[in-house]
Predict the 3D structure of the following.
Amino acid sequence: MDLRQQLIRDEGSVSHAYEDSLGFTTIGVGRLIDFRRGGGLRDGEIDFLLGNDIEEKTAQVLAALPWASKLSETRRAVLINMAFQLGIGGLLKFKRALGSIEDGQYKEASMEMLDSLWAQQTPERAKRLSKQMERDEWQ
């Protein structure tokens, strides 16, 4: 037994946020993340999680849309960004936009992206990403 094993035994290991015995948000092995008690993640931890999430969403996009591997990094990033926000299932509902992207019709895809509930709910993000898809320039 060492300290790590002891803490896992005593605190438990939980892969999602939960309330501890005092009602504060905790994750992992007793890691307080509740801001009301000064908890949270360090910048390096946030960056590590983001890297893992980008890797996962990229794999999901490429598995569901193999043709996306042929897109420029900038345009492929739009799909990954949307999958990050909407989940891969949400992204795949953009059938007309995805068809236009696959066909290289980026202006049409941009318009299809903006003609959606997603664009109504998060208009600034949708405008930036649709412009990035159309122009192939980071926004």
Notes: Residues 3 and 136 are 51 Å apart (CA to CA). Strands lie at 14-19, 25-28, 31-32. The chain has two domains: 3-37, 43-132. The chain is about 60% helix and 10% strand.
